[in-house]
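Predict the 3D structure for this chain.
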Amino acid sequence: MPLGSFTRRDLLCSIAGTLMAKQASLALGDPIPKAMGNAFQPLAGPRRSEPSGMIGNHKAIYDRHGVLLPWTSWGDAIDREMQWYLKCPMEHGYPRFVVMTFMDGDFEPVERRKDFIPSMQNGMGIISYLKYYHGRGGRDPKWLQVARYMGDYLVRDSLTPDTGKWPRFTRSTGIRERFPQPPDCGCQKDRSYETQPDKGGIAGYALVLLYEETRDDRYLKQALQNARVLVANMGPGSKDTSPWPFRVDYRTGEGRGPVSANMSYILRLFDKLLEHGHAEFQGPRQKLWAWITDYQIPNLTQSGSLWVQFFEDYDALDNRNSWSPNNLARYLLEKKEALDPEWQQHAKMLIEFVIRNFTSIRFGVPVCGEQTGDENPWGGALSTYGAVLAMYSATTGSEEYKGLAWQALNFGLYAINDDGCPRDSALKPGRGGWQEDAHTDKIHNYMDAIAAFPEWAG
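Done. Predicted structure below.
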């Protein structure tokens, strides 16, 4: 959207150009940090007026060029957070943050928020804990045990009943501290008997990874169940609809919301199961990939109408989101030619779509918001954006987005308190909140960025 005579991208390019001009005008003095790459380039967002001095839980540290620096090293901040979660009390055999979405800084439930997002929160949490486990050498079993707690909750306590069109499928929403979730537990914008197909893709993919690590057949069996139910209910997709609706009534199969933007994790699930010899998913996988390449990726430069609906607490049919295109870009960057001969071009298209539509400048820092309906840089969406930009830079050798990645991820670290307790965003001080944004959909992104640029760990 234009801002006077500027586009959103022009505005940030102007800011970036000012930073580079300052650097050029200084014969001596601190250079722009090497982590920024050759350019503090692109982006795109309206400037917001916010008080300087503090970001999140810490005094903001900028260099002389206005570049935000981390308040402590990345490795130290992440380790503090992981150690804090190890202190979480157990509830019915699980750490509390596994069975509730809204938890405060004393490990207590936020009383007014009983709603819970088990598949997204614990699916991405499994991925986070496995990446942290391997990033720290793969020798400390306590990190793997936390991932197992999350997997155990998914397979034991978060399933739809064994009836109807979507039987024994992991629930998108529920009620905190229910063992198991009752049949009518749908909440946020889900109706009582609804679930979201794409969230079953996230949970199923994470469970295959957990199976690979533990060889516990329970995880693979549930992943197969999710995948088979998805195949049984798959539609053809079109220029106006995705192969699955965003929400379904698990009893009748009735859909609500014709487009679900997050197809990459269902694709990941099918690909993983094919790796394990389950050839039944080859046809559905090919149909899904054809829809992505024939309709969804081209839609990036059109209306963006195939990138709507992802977050559990929204149901607006025109609500585009940053999470889904960023995560398809991530998969392209991981698999490259094995997935798509045009992987680099398509990854860049996905990133540019996010930059055009979801970025802003907060506290002088370019950041990424969640969705059309909420442009705030919550921890999950922000760290996803930063990680994907870092992966693009490392994989392609282009430094176009490197500085943006470093700045966005530095900003996110300011949500972590000295004792390791995080808030769900760095927009203001605090402790706790949405556990997916505060923790489970965040750690894996920092681990991916560190894998891309190990020196960023500090």
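Confidence is low (pLDDT under 50) at residues 1-15, 17-32, 38-51.
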